Amino acid sequence: xxxxQSTFINMVVTLFVITIVAGMSLGFVNEITLEPKAKAxxxxxxxxxxxxxxxxxxxxxxxxxxxxxxKAKDSVEMYPAFSEGExxxxxxxxxxxxxxxxxxxxxxxxxxxxxxxxIVVLEQKETPGLGTKMKDDKYIQQYRDKNPSxxxxxxTKDGGKIxxxxxxxxxTRAFSEAAQMAYEEFIKYKEELSKPKN
Amino acid sequence: MAETIDQKQNFLKGIVKDNPVFVMLLGxxxxxxxxxxAFNGLGMAVATMFVLLMSNIVVSLIKKQIPSKVRIPAFIIxxxxxxxxxxxxxxxFIPFLYEQLGIFIPLIVxxxxxxxxxxxxxxxxxxxxxxxxxxxxxxGFIIALTALGAAREILGSGSIFDFKFVGEDANxxxxxxxxxxxFIALAYLTYIFNRLTTKTAK
Lengths: 198, 202
Fold this sequence. Notes:
The complex is a heterodimer of chains A (198) and B (202). By secondary structure, chain A is of the alpha+beta class.
């Protein structure tokens, strides 16, 4: 085979050309997938809002409140929901960096009295088949209609009331931490959230 | 004439004689890691097959331009680019699968099956042979991962392709969803596969 000689200049030029081409094609693909990626994320968010909140007739995405919290790297997103002008609850994005593979991001819907309406998972990189089970109804229903002020969100192993996922205690801890964080932020800003914008 | 027989063999070898998982035992990381359900295994294998096909094509096209001392870094850059493309496309268009596979998509880069085929086959053969080689190996990988995923899902979750055939609270062999179950299931499947193929070869 008449391969190019492995001279210094040949090697440098070849690798240079390959990395340039690779970099440009990645940039190109990133460019064209940027919009669908954002769209997929937004669709997921709107879909999530519908699942975690009681029936509402405003557009919570428009009334998004961003709050700085010392517990999360990014600011915490809160989506208040109203039905016929009355405050019916809010969705708060809780997150924890303590998942088995890093960030776990969940959306928790609260009723005005602080009870959890429902939870959906937004972002996670947990082990498929183990940690990803936190998305199952069987796990999440443990949180439903519970008020974190009297219901300890920690796993039973840590003295709480949540049955941990089999083989995924770390994921369970991260999930509960994220839910707890969302609850604390919700209670802190409840007054502000319940006021209609106009 | 001899060429066509050779090509058929070339395609089939990846499925039976040199099956990447059951015979060559390559690409064990995703094989053991994501096959907790049949669907995950299938999704992973299809993504891997795409990367394998693209990298084999590119490597076989530019093989003469790469000085042999830097061929490994060159191959890795090519493979990593395609993996990143797959990751971005999955995130944009099949977010569901993207979430399921999670961390294992970027890890396709270090799947030795892909680098192995680039090094052992595509860098020595022409484009058409390399495409068939990638397709054969890819199909073999898909069969293996789907079979392993199905076996583990049936035993560990009592379901197949997310269709549950046992009751919600039935006791299943959770062990098979956990990492040790992957090794056990893989060992038995490898045994069965080799038993069957050596029999037919005789």
